Amino acid sequence: MNQDINISTNKILKTGPMKKSGGQYALVLLQPKDIPQMMGLQDVAFAALTPEQQTYLHHKTPEFLNKHFAHGNIVLGVVADGKLVAQSVVVNPTRLYPDTGMTDMKLDVEPEKITTIQGVIVDPAARGNNLMTVMVDEWLAIAKKEGRTHAVAEVTVQNHHSWSVFMKEGLQIHSIGHDGTDNSDVYNMHASVTHLINRRAKPDFNKAAAPKSATCHMSQLLHQKALLRKGYVGVSFNAANQNICFRAPRKKQFKPGGV
Hints:
By secondary structure, the chain is of the alpha+beta class. 24% of the residues lie in helices and 30% in strands.
């Protein structure tokens, strides 16, 4: 479980303060040389999960990561005190390598317009420093620079710690799928990259959904699926009562001369 890392040859994307633990972090682009440290962080995160929570974390193998890098994809890493304390695997599909990494979600857009974030891990000892937000910010900035318009993510439905953060960052639940590799239900989350960036620029972007909405408990998957089939999307989560707020479908604007 070695997380000690030398980033002297890594590209540093930004630096900032560790809000809870003090000191500074560096957000970097990880390299194939860093795969042992990535595996070490994954082991630490997995060891902190209960048996019921172990479907939250889909193990990446060194072979997967080597292939990931070879296909031109990236991994974001957060380093503090010389250790890798957080990471996110970013899949940017191409026509040559069109796989999005999503097990049960299809988008009717060109692969070059999609970006997927997966394998998001924060060392339990480094939680509370908003490191997931730091990585999501950079993920979206890179996506916009590369002309990718659709941001997607997949999260096990029981893992509200992760999908609630994605919702706070502006992604919405668009469907519920199934991952046959570990027999888990997953939320398929999606948003427009431009919408996310513009929304995040506003100080009130995390406010509750519009009045036309419905709520249901996070455990009520059948009710959620019924809402999603009607065109609702999950937009916010109330941790106090564990209710998800689903926004009603937006009415189509009438255009003169339209059919």
